[in-house]
Amino acid sequence: MSSLSDILEELYSLSRPGKGFKPHKYLLLLSVLNLLRSGKVSDKRIYFNAMLRAEFSTFLRKFGEEDDRDRPHNPFFHLASSSFWNLIPFPGREADLDRASTVGGAGELAELVQYAELSEPFLNALKDETFCPVIESRILKCILAGRESCRDAHLQESQKQGTQVLQRLSFSDKPIETSNQFVGYLNSLQRLNASNDNAFAESQACNPFFAYLHVPHPLAQAILAELRKPEGRHVILTGHAGDGKSTIALEIYKQLSGISNEQSLPQPLRPREDLPGTGITIMKDLSERRREEDSALVQELLGDERRFLLVSNTGTLLDMLRGQAATFGMSRVKIESELLNSIGTERGEAELALGGTRFWVVNLARMDNLEFARQIFARMVAPEHWAFCKELPCRVNCPICLNVDLINHRQSIVFNRIFLAYRRMYEYGTRLTLRQITEHLAYLVTSGLEESDIAEMHEKHQSPLKAEFMFFNRFFGDNGKEGHPGALQMRAVSEISKQGFGERPCPRWERKLWLKLRDRYFRLGVDDCDAEFDLLREHGSGPGNDNKPGLSPDQAREQVRRMLYFLYDFPKREVSYLIQFLNSSTILCWQEWQSPGARLEMTERNVLERRIFHVLQEHFTGVRLPEGVTEHDRRLYITLSRGKTKIRQSAQVVLAQIDWSNETALELTRSQNAAGGGRTDLELKGSGRINGANLLLTLPFLDYVVMRHYGEVGEILQPAYVERLERFKTQVLQRAKETRSDVMLVRLKTDHTFRRQQYTILDGILEVNDVL
């Protein structure tokens, strides 16, 4: 196409007038035109996302007939027959797209097509203030002509209605909703397909649904207070992509601009926002800056006339500061060292001084984000966001609504179990960003289903097993039978699969679930799921009937175990199932320590002290010791050993020894980060000679201690924790190293206890004494 006349001529041929005329291609073009007009789309790439689908639904309600189905995926695909609409496939799917003559649904379209690309002449025409109204008028005439040809017997009435349709055209009309658009928004947070535009803060800023999930971040208030201080510091906000840096910057921008958090912005934040009347500048992403302006930016930072919030990942920030090392009057190596030290602090915050200017460095990657994610999840399933669905015909047996109802009916238990699993991962070193957790939680709610999928199920009267779409299966990225390819690409799902949740059986509960099935005395106690729970138990307890629930007995048993973990209200004394499911013997103790005013009971303290002492003695001497042999000797030896458990060293030189009972103590210590979040950890603290030699006892180490006690010889310490033990060992050696002229040896006797012997040379004679 090279002219307006060519464009107008081709529009006539998009959908053939006559019986069976469908306006869907024209309605999709009206949707694109409106998105371009409102600035929500600015280039030639058109994504099949929630925003486009919502526009299409609006126009379908205005100009569609009762039998016109709300399926925008069809015109999105078939517009490729025109000269101005080109489909761009995903890498590796080119041949599949070439072979496809149609698409069966939105999911199939999303698997094949990244986006559609408008031709340059067509895009320019739509953006032109003169051409655009002409094209819009031609599209509407094509719709009316098609409708009239379908209703020749009522031609006069059709013409009258056509005139009325043209008169009531208004893009500012409030749409009459016939589906819950919140579902599409939740799906846009997921990376299952190309419709994930709202996974990024840039799109969130302009999306009205963002207010549904937005939770004010306590760190935003702390940063804002720092920027407003007369003698305040510049703030550097860093972290991984997806940690929420841009969202915090957006929240600060809104507060400084007098915009409520519920209000969406007309356009995303610019790379640099100078807030009038505040003396504050927000650089929302340093990677978007113009590098030639770095010198001027640093001069502003040093001038201290404005307060800056610099949002950046570590690499970009490091490049910018090192590149301006001369302006700061520092060497590149010095700047790099100072910045990395400030970013790497345990608390996630530190002060950084460069060229006489002070910065407050806040690293979100060092901060616990699980409580914040929990609040977001509560907003996802909040009843007020789903009240609209009560009036829809597809509400009956809608998998998404059933899922939301189930979560809300057991909210306390469900939330606790989901975030207990996240906590186990976090404490073992698997830290997910807020974006990764949010997309996983959104997937738990919707299973990736679109409104069109629900409508199709309703029309076909399909009633699959509830469990197929329920969160307790989707948490693992599958439907209880097979993995969902899109979900398996999520980092949260891939990391969960590595944890082995549910792989370690709990014998007591296995007997209850399978061997006593005929008694029928055990019930899940959840009205929403009791029937399916019993069905799956029956199927999993015997040979099974694959035709009934459509899955194998082992798959049925796995689903029963998942339902038990996520939904059952275990009595306090019967929580062994939970710790077995999560592969963590002490996670429930750790959780109890987080309660305000938590303290160690005497019995709990004594048991932990004995077991920790035993493990440390093994590690410092390199000798495996049976349980109980160290109970009567309360001295902790640090010896000159090979550190090889496979080499028996019966005699070892003692480098230091401490009185375990009098020189160490277990305490619960409370810590807090810059965002106000706190946590309680168990800490081994030295006193007397080894005062200041402290060892933080994290969940993986405590699990190792307990599993060693129960004979799990296959359990090994994480390399990172071995390094921590070596640092503690060094601290003890520095404070309690033997300084006498004699040498003390410990010898391992046949009963696995130690015998101490002291060797001294006096007047050329070797003296050996047993030490009591």
Helix content: 40-55%
Biggest sheet descriptor: 6 strands, mixed
Overall domain count = 4
Strand content: 5-15%
Radius of gyration: 33 Å
Overall pLDDT confidence: 84
DSSP summary, beta strand count:
17
Strand order of the largest sheet: 5-6-7-4-9-8
Q: What are the low-pLDDT stretches, counting only 5+ consecutive residues below 50?
A: 151-177
How many helices in DSSP terms? 34
Report the end-to-end length measured between terminal Cα atoms: 100 Å
Ordered list of secondary-structure elements with their pairings:
Elements lengths: L3 H9 L11 H15 L6 E2 L3 H14 L9 H6 L6 E5 L4 H6 L6 H7 E6 L1 H8 L3 H20 L4 H13 L13 H8 L12 H4 L5 H4 L4 H11 L5 E5 L6 H13 L14 E4 L4 E4 L10 H10 L3 E5 L2 H10 L1 H4 L3 H12 L5 E6 L2 E7 L6 H11 L18 H11 L1 H17 L6 H13 L4 H10 L10 H4 L16 H9 L7 H9 L14 H11 L12 H15 L8 H7 L4 H7 L8 H20 L13 E6 L10 E9 H4 E9 L5 E9 L7 E4 L1 H11 L9 H18 L6 E6 L5 E9 L2 E6 L2
Parallel strand pairs: 4-7, 4-9, 6-7
Antiparallel strand pairs: 1-3, 2-3, 5-6, 8-9, 10-11, 11-15, 12-13, 13-14, 15-16, 16-17
Helix pairs in contact: 1-8, 2-3, 2-8, 3-10, 8-9, 13-14, 16-18, 19-22, 20-21, 27-28
Explain what you see.
The chain has 772 residues and is an alpha+beta fold. The chain has four domains: 4-178, no CATH class; 179-198 and 368-538 and 549-584, no CATH class; 214-366, Rossmann fold; 602-739, no CATH class. Helix content is 45%, strand content 13%. Strands 5-6-7-4-9-8 form a six-stranded mixed beta sheet, sandwiched between helices. A hairpin with a 4-residue loop joins strand 5 and strand 6 (280-283). Helix 2 (24-38) runs antiparallel to helix 8 and helix 8 (131-150) runs antiparallel to helix 9 (155-167). The N and C termini lie far apart (100 Å). Mean pLDDT is 84; it is low at 151-177.
